[in-house]
Design brief:
19% of the residues lie in helices and 20% in strands. By secondary structure, the chain is an alpha+beta fold. The chain folds into 2 domains: 101 residues, no CATH class; 91 residues. The two termini are 34 Å apart. 30% of the residues are buried.
């Protein structure tokens, strides 16, 4: 861990950034949803809509239920936040903080060689503009596959190949024997030799 003051996520870099609370999907959390009357509930949150508990622009991270937020929110860290907290993640400049660049970058849970870049639909060209563009190109040149998510569109960036737009169900080869495919729900599956 990089040295940091103790405390909430405000101390660790989220501050008033809450873009993940808009762009990412979150499953319903039964533990939060079964709280006593008058306390927060948490039904499923779809892609590209603000969480009903989020107050963008306020701290910590705009979360109105921060002490009792869902487990998915507790464990989640975007790449920018990881770059502040972990010694094994290179530091990223403030210009790549999600609420500044309009892109939330995160690693795949299935494959550490895949990075997702979720783009705010209000800024659909943000991934093609600096400094995000150069960062994504540098990252793909290191051998990582980048999946750019812009509303319903998905693009794949890989070293030595042109960026391609994916369609639902299409499988794209990432490496020898390894493929990625977009499911109907917009999520991705990574499979070996066509098995998902």
């Amino acid at each position: 861990m990089k040295s940091q003051p103790p405390g909430t996520n405000t101390d660790t870099g989220c501050g008033n950034c809450a873009l993940c609370c808009k762009l990412l999907t979150i499953d319903a959390d039964p533990e939060v949803s079964q709280m006593t009357e008058g306390q927060a509930d948490f039904p499923a949150k779809p892609w590209n809509t603000w969480c009903k508990h989020c107050k963008p622009g306020s701290s910590p991270g705009g979360c109105g239920i921060y002490p009792v937020r869902p487990k998915a929110c507790i464990t989640y860290q975007c790449l920018y936040l990881q770059s502040l907290l972990r010694v094994d993640v290179p530091s990223l400049p403030l210009a790549l903080k999600p609420n500044v660049c309009h892109v939330v970058m995160m690693g795949s849970l299935e494959d550490n060689m895949v990075l997702f870049a979720h783009v705010d639909p209000a800024y659909p060209r943000a991934w093609r503009e600096e400094p995000v563009r150069s960062h994504l190109i540098r990252t793909s040149n290191l051998g990582l596959t980048i999946i750019v998510v812009v509303s319903g569109d998905r693009f794949v960036m890989t070293r030595g190949r042109p960026t391609v737009k994916m369609s639902e169900g299409q499988a794209i080869q990432l490496a020898e024997g390894k493929f990625i495919r977009q499911r109907p729900d917009g999520n991705f599956e990574i499979g070996i030799n066509g098995a998902y």
